[in-house]
Q: What sequence folds into this?
């Protein structure tokens, strides 16, 4: 994941994108990639023992938006169908995990998902501001 985050940071720095936006993009990448690897590939590998995993990431700037297109050949998963988690009232009630998709939703202006050609295709649009 660090390689993807580093490449994104270099690209965004080269286009004058500020640290706060870069942090948000890095956080979104970390959450999406962690979910793909853990839920789309690790569980499948445990069943099949096959390792033919591909994740493609395209980062582009269009007008005042950052567009992340992420495709993978893991288990089909539509993050848009996941219900919003119930947030804990106290730190004692808080559990580790389960908030990644919520963070992605909060960082994004727009999310789109398709299962196309045996691939998960997720588009995340974020503001440059």
A:
């Amino acid at each position: 994941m660090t390689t993807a985050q580093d490449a994104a940071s270099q690209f965004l720095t080269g286009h004058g994108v500020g640290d706060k936006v870069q942090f948000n993009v890095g956080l979104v990448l970390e959450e999406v990639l962690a979910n793909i690897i853990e839920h789309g590939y690790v569980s499948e590998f445990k069943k099949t023992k096959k390792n033919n995993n591909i994740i493609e990431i395209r980062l582009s700037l269009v007008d005042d938006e950052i567009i992340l297109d992420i495709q993978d050949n893991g288990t089909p998963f539509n993050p848009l169908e996941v219900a919003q988690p119930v947030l804990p009232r106290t730190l004692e009630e808080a559990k580790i995990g389960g908030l990644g998709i919520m963070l992605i939703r909060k960082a994004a202006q727009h999310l789109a998902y398709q299962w196309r050609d045996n691939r998960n295709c997720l588009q995340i649009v974020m503001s440059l501001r």
